[in-house]
Design a protein that fits this description.
Blueprint: E1 2-5, E2 8-11, H1 12-23, H2 38-47, H3 50-55, E3 61-62, E4 68-70, E5 82-85, E6 90-93, E7 99-100, H4 102-110, H5 114-125, E8 131-133, E9 136-138, H6 146-163, H7 170-178, H8 183-188, E10 192-194, H9 200-207, H10 212-217, E11 221-224, E12 230-233, E13 238-244, E14 250-257, E15 267-269, H11 285-295, E16 297-301, H12 304-312, E17 318-320, H13 328-338, E18 349-350, E19 355-356, E20 360-363, H14 369-382, E21 388-391, H15 400-407, H16 411-417, E22 420-421, H17 422-431, H18 439-454, H19 459-473, H20 477-489
Parallel strand pairs: 16-17, 16-20, 20-21
Antiparallel strand pairs: 1-2, 3-4, 4-5, 5-6, 6-7, 8-9, 10-13, 11-12, 13-14, 14-15, 18-19, 21-22
């Protein structure tokens, strides 16, 4: 009997052997495992369904009788080589060689020790763990462990939510109302309020048994004062959003200032901690993950209120980054949920619903310079996706939250229906500051856009956008092709993708900032400008 992968046949015996090599010694030989009773560890293994735990991080599909497969969460791949055997309780990746049982998976995916992984699963499954030290049984979690920091965040979230109902929090409630959110929306997203005092939360957590070191390690408090020993609340007088990981556990917070007297930044997030890594979390993903996996679509917006507005408008696949640009780690998280694979037709829009084959990643950027730079950063990451990437920008420059306030719940879905491919958006935006009705403008446009087209690694797409660029500029195909080839040889890359500004021409004259007159409309991108 053989287990059939896409284009690869693997004997069942070989699969079992690979799994056994990774799992055989897992039962009790971990040096930390002796602290937890063996029968409790076994109870955790029995109650934690492997396919459910893995399925929160990987979109799994049937791979034959008793087997599931998906994209490995531990290395970057486009063809699924990650296999799960629920009946055996084992998983294994034939790409990177990782494998184990449900406890091992939690250890690796959350970077936990063995005992902490068992504790995490015990909390999920309702297993009461018993700890042994010198024959005595104790209950609880050791101070300073990851689970303690997670628990501190959970308590802080509940406390923040309670504070939102206090008289002091009226400015926070007024802000939510002004953005179109009622108390039910606030409750759904866990929005809370941090009082203005210096140590309100610190005193509450101390009374719950947390040490000052844990308060600082969790990112909920900071140290200051002349001797650097004073511990004070990081968030004060601000509206609070809990930031959760894909499992729904709160790992950090985002906070918006409500008063001009607050000299801090408009938004303040939890700093990097043992449980919060901003490059690996997406706000709203815990609420969006099921629909993302079902619809194979994810919408990336720019702020917490944008996520709220999108979900309340029926776009329940919306997420946002947390104080950082959308990067490679985010790509890996999104790809696992989308089940992104190599598909020659990925991105082809089909059907009346205008859904893209292979799934979609849609970015909603502001139309300003910062939004344009964000688009170029996404352009640099886009080629990590087989899934087609699109951009949706409101012509009036409104963000999704403002758009919902102006147009109601239909505004954001209508914005997404006007999405354009990311490559097209980047190229067209690089031309938008030029007057393409002049010879000088067209030449400068070619110098500006050729590096963008040259950066497209897919050869077929590069040829197509070379042809489109020729049409947009009204220049001969051969001339544009030569310019793109020259940019490719130079290894040219749009400077904004490296954090700079849009490609500029040093010889640009007064017409460089002229209104766009020769650029074809998005609805007719292939119109030949030279016709």
């Amino acid at each position: 009997m053989r287990h059939v992968l896409r284009g690869l046949a693997v004997p069942i015996g070989e699969l079992a052997q690979a799994l056994a090599q990774n799992v055989g010694a897992l039962a009790y030989d971990d040096p930390v495992a002796g602290l937890i009773r063996r029968e409790d560890i076994e109870a955790v293994r029995e109650r934690a369904r492997l396919e459910d735990v893995v399925g929160e991080h990987v979109t799994l599909k049937s791979a034959g009788v008793g087997s599931l497969k998906g994209l490995c969460p531990f290395h970057d791949e486009r063809t699924p080589s990650f296999h799960v055997r629920p009946q055996l309780g084992y998983w294994h990746c034939f790409g990177c060689g990782e494998g184990g049982d449900v406890i091992t998976f939690i250890e690796k995916i959350h970077h936990l020790g063995f005992a902490e992984a068992v504790e995490y699963l015990a909390d999920r499954t309702g297993v009461q763990l018993r700890y042994e030290e010198g024959g005595a049984v104790r209950r609880g979690v050791e101070p300073g462990t990851r689970q303690r920091l997670m628990d501190a965040n959970r308590l802080a979230e509940a406390w923040f939510r309670e504070q939102l109902a206090t008289p002091e929090a009226q400015p926070g409630r007024d802000f939510l109302t002004s953005r179109g959110f009622d108390r039910h929306a606030a409750a759904h997203f866990g929005v809370g309020y941090a009082p203005a005092g210096w140590d309100n939360l610190a005193r509450y957590l101390r009374s719950s048994g947390y040490t000052e070191a844990e308060l600082v390690d969790s990112g909920l408090c900071s140290r200051g004062g002349q001797d650097g020993r004073r511990v004070y609340d990081r968030f004060r007088g601000r509206l609070i959003w809990p930031i959760r990981d894909v499992t729904g556990a709160t790992v950090g917070f985002g906070a918006r200032k409500l008063s001009e007297e607050d000299q801090g930044p408009k938004y303040l997030n939890t700093p990097e901690t043992p449980v919060f890594h901003k490059s690996q979390v997406l706000y709203g993903l815990d609420l969006a993950k099921r629909e993302v996996a079902r619809s194979h679509r994810i919408v990336v917006v720019e702020g917490y209120t944008d996520v709220m507005a999108a979900h309340l408008s029926g776009v329940t696949t919306a997420v946002a980054t947390c104080g950082t640009a959308f990067g490679a780690d985010h790509v890996r998280v999104v790809r696992r949920l989308l089940g992104d694979v190599d598909d020659p037709a990925a991105g082809v829009v089909t059907g009346q619903g205008r859904e893209a084959r292979g799934g979609e990643v849609i970015f909603t950027f502001d139309g300003d310079a910062a939004g344009q730079k964000a688009a170029l950063r996404a352009y640099a990451e886009d080629q990590r996706f087989a899934t087609q990437t699109f951009v949706a920008v409101d012509p009036g420059g409104l963000d999704p939250c403002d758009l919902r306030m102006k147009e109601g719940d239909s505004g954001i879905p209508r914005l997404l229906s006007r999405r354009v491919p990311l490559f097209e958006f980047v190229i067209r935006t690089s031309l938008s500051h030029l007057d393409l009705d002049t010879s000088e403008g067209r030449v400068r446009g070619l110098r500006s856009a050729a590096p963008v087209v040259a950066g497209i690694r897919d050869r077929a797409l590069k040829r197509e956008y070379t042809r489109r660029l020729a049409g947009w500029l009204g220049l001969p195909d051969a001339e544009v092709h030569a310019a793109v080839q020259a940019a490719s040889r130079r290894g040219a890359q749009p400077s904004a993708a490296r954090g700079g500004q849009w490609p500029a021409d040093e010889t640009a004259g007064p017409d460089a900032a002229a209104p766009v007159r020769g650029l074809p409309p998005v609805t007719d991108p292939c119109r030949a400008a030279r016709a």
